Amino acid sequence: MNPFSGMIPMMKKEFLHLRRDQGTVIFALLIPVVQLIIFGFALNMNVRQIPTVVYDQAPSQRSRELIERFRAADTFAIRGHVSSDDELYREIRQGHAQVALKIPADYADRILEGRGATVQLLVDGSDSTVSSAALNVFSSLILLENQRLSNSGKPIVEARPAVLFNPATRSPNFFVPGLVAVLVQIMVILLVALSVVRERERGTLDQLTVTPVQPLGVMVGKMIPYVALGFAEICWVLLIMRVVFAVPINGSLATLLLIAVPFLVASSGIGLLISTKAQSQAEAFQLSFGTMLPSIFLSGYIFPINNMPTQFQYVSKIIPTTYYIEVTRGVILRGASLSELWVNGAVLTLMAVVTVALAARQFQRQLS
Amino acid sequence: MTVIETKDLTIRFGDFTAVDHVSMSIERGEVFGLLGPNGSGKTTIIKALCGLVKISAGSGNLLGLDVRQRAAEIRQRIGYMSQRFGLYEDLTVRENIEFYSGVYGLSPERHARRFADVVALTTITPYLDRRAGQLSGGWKQRLALACAIIHSPEVVFLDEPTAGIDPVARRALWDLVFLLSGQGVTFLVTTHYMDEAERCGRVGYLYNSRLVALGTVDELKRLPAANPPGTARFEITCPNVMEVLAAVRLLPYVHEATIFGQSIHALADISATAALAAAVNVTPRLIEPSLEDVFVTLTNQIRNTV
Fold first, then answer.
1. Which residues from A are below 8 Å from B87, CB to CB?
2. In A264-285, which positions are buried (b, 16+ CB within 10 angstroms) versus exposed (e)?
3. In a mutagenesis test of the A interface, which of B78, B88, B96 is the best target, namely the one with the most A β-carbons within 10 Å?
4. Is B155:B77 a contact under the CB 8 Å cutoff?
5. How far is residue A308's CA from residue A326's CA, in Å, rounded to a whole number?
6. In the sheet where B285-287 sits, what is the strand order?
7. What is the CATH number of the domain that holds A76?
8. Nearest CA to A206 among B10, B148, B249?
9. Is residue B102 within 8 angstroms of chain A, CB to CB?
10. A4: nearest CA in chain B?
11. Does residue B54 sit at the A interface (CB-CB below 8 Å)?
C-alpha cells in the first residue's frame, strides 16, 4: 500500500476549501500589514552578554588589560579570538558574534609613547537594540580606560565604532525580517490545525478512515495548500518590507525562499500535531495560540536569545521560528549566503520530517 | 456466496465488552438489518468489519478476506455511509463526488463512467453545482450514497442512514438500496426504525453486546421466546389508553403491555382472555406480534434473567 495514498485528491480538495473560504486568505495577507505598522517602531531594551570576538593584532600587557575590561562588562560575552579580518567578518556574518573588538598591532607602543592609540569596535547593526547597547557601553569602557592610562587628562585611546550591515540602526530593518517568520509560523500552525479538526468535528475524518487513504497521504495532502499560502505570505511581506519600509535585501532571495520550504513544513507539522490532540476547533485555537507566545518572545524576534536564562535558550532551540529568523536576518541584513546558513535549513528540515512523521503516527494510533 | 461472516466475534475495550461472541453470515445481495439500542454494539461491528477496531477474539471475514489482515484491500471494495454523511459542505455536489472518486483512485475513464452512473441513479443532476451544505437532508443523503458507491463497492454499510430524514426521502433511499441489492450489492444496515427493519430480508437484534435474535422478520415473529406457550398478544383499543395501561400492567396474567398509538398491545395468558376483556371493558383483539413486540419481549426476558 502506498503510504501517501489519497494525497493528491486531499490536496485538490483543500485548495477548493481555501478558494471558497476567501476570508482566510484575506486574513492571511492583511494581518501582516497591520503587524508591520505596529512593529515598525522600535522597542528599546537592556542588552546583556552580546557574543563578542576579539581580534588582537599584537597581544601585549595593555591589550590584555583592555580585553579584561570587556570581559568584566556584562554587556559583552567574549566568545573567542580571531586572527584575521576575514575570520572576523565571517563570524559576524554567520551570526556567531554580533560584536568584534579590533585592537591594532601598535596599540601598546602608541600608549607607551603617549601618541594616542585607536581601538575599533565592529557592530552587527542588523539587531538595532544590540548594536546601540554595544556602542554605548563601548564608549564608556574606553572613557574609563583613558582615565586610567592618561596622567595628563588628555585622552590617549580613541574609540572608533563601526556599525556593519545596518549602519543607520533602523529598527524596521531589525523587526521586519523577524516578523516574516513569526507571522507565517502562527498562521500556518493555526490553519492546518483547524482544517483537520474541522473534519473531525463534521465526521468527514471518520468517513476517510473507511477509505483506502493512508494517514501520511491525508496529512501531506492537507498541508500542501497551507504551505503554498504561507509561501505567498512570505513573498508578500518581503514585498511590503522592500517597498514600504525600504529595507534592502542584501543576500540572495533564492536562499530565503528555499529555506522557507522546510520552515513552512515544520510549522504545518506542529499544526498537525495540535490537530491530533484537539477535539474541537476552540481547543485547536487555544493550543495554536499557546505556541504563539514562545515563538514571539523566545525566538529572538524581540528579545536577544543570549539575554535569556539557559533553560529558556533550550526552549528557543525547538521553535522553528528561531531558525528562520536567523535566516531572514542573515540574508536580508548581513547578506549571508546559503553556505553560511545551511545549518538552519538542515535543522528545519529535520523538524519538518519529525513533526509530520509523529503526527501521522499519532493519527494512525487514534484510528485503531 | 457468503459475503460477510463473523464467528464468535468479540471486541473488548479494556474491561468493557462491546461485542460479545457475535456470529452471523450474510449472503451476496442481501439487505441485512442490525437493530438494537444505542451502545449495543452495532457500530462497533461495522467498524470491526472495516478493520478499524481490533478484534479481541473470534473472526471476521469480508468477501472471503480476513479483516484482521486484509483491511487495506477490503476498504477498496466496501462503501460506508453514516448518519453524519461525511460530506464537505463548502464543496459542490460534483466536487464531493470527484473527491471520493479520487480517494478511491478511480482512473479518469472509470471515473467518467461511474460519475454518470451514480448521478443517474440518485437523480442528483439538477444540483451538481450546488454546495452540499445547501441541500436538504434527503438530497444530502443521496449525495452521501453517491459518494459511498462511486467505486462500485460489493458491500455497503449504512449506519443509521435515515436518522432525521423525512419519510418520503427515507422511502426514496430504500428504493435505491433495493435497486442496488438487485444488482448484487450486499447491504448491512443499522437502524432504529421498525418499519425499516421490516423491509430488511433478515434482521439481527443486538442487546447488551450480544446477538439475541437473528432471522427473517417472519421467523422472528414466530420465535418461541417471543411467544411463550399458553400466551397470546392482544390489541386493546380504548379512549383512555394511559389509565387502562396502568391498570392492565397490574393484572397477574398480563406479562407485558405497551402503547401503540390509540391502543395497547398486551402479552397475556390465553386462558385469561375473558378476564382481560372484563377488566378493560372492551373485547381484546387477538393479533400477530409486531417486530417491536418481539424485541420488547426478548429484552424483558434478558433483563429478568439478569
1. 204
2. bbbbbbbbbbbbbebeeeeebb
3. B88
4. yes
5. 17
6. B254-260, B263-269, B231-237, B285-287
7. 3.40.1710.10
8. B148
9. yes
10. B103
11. yes
- CATH 3.40.50.300 domain position(s) in chain B: 2-217
Do A204 and A318 have their domain in common? yes
| pLDDT tens digits for range B217-236 | 889 888 888 888 888 899 98
The pTM of the full predicted model, rounded to 2 decimals, is: 0.77
Whether residue A35 has pLDDT greater than 80: no
Cβ-based neighbours of B90, under 8 Å, separated by 6 or more? A16, A17, A20, A21, B131, B132, B133
A292 and A186 Cβ atoms separated by less than 8 Å: yes
A129 and A76 housed in the same domain: yes
Number of domains in chain A: 2
Q: What is the pLDDT of residues A245-266, one digit of tens each?
A: 778 888 899 999 999 999 999 9
List residues of A whose CB lies inside 8 A of any B CB: 1, 5-6, 8-10, 12-13, 16-17, 20-21, 202-204, 206-213, 367-368
CA distance A292 to chain B (A): 29
Which amino acid, B151?
H
What pLDDT is stored for residue A42 in this prediction?
45
- In CATH, the number for domain B228-288 is 3.30.70
Does residue A240 belong to any structural domain of this protein? yes
pLDDT at B274 over 50: yes
Cβ contact A212–B105 (<8 Å): yes
A33 contact partners, CB below 8 Å, separation of at least 6: A240
Residue A150's domain comprises: 50-164
CB pairs under 8 A between A and B: 70
Q: Which of A269, A271, A196, A267 is nearest to A233 (CA)?
A: A267
Q: Is B76 part of the contact surface with chain A (CB cutoff 8 Å)?
A: yes
Among A195, A208, A211, most B C-beta atoms within 10 A, so best to mutate, is A211
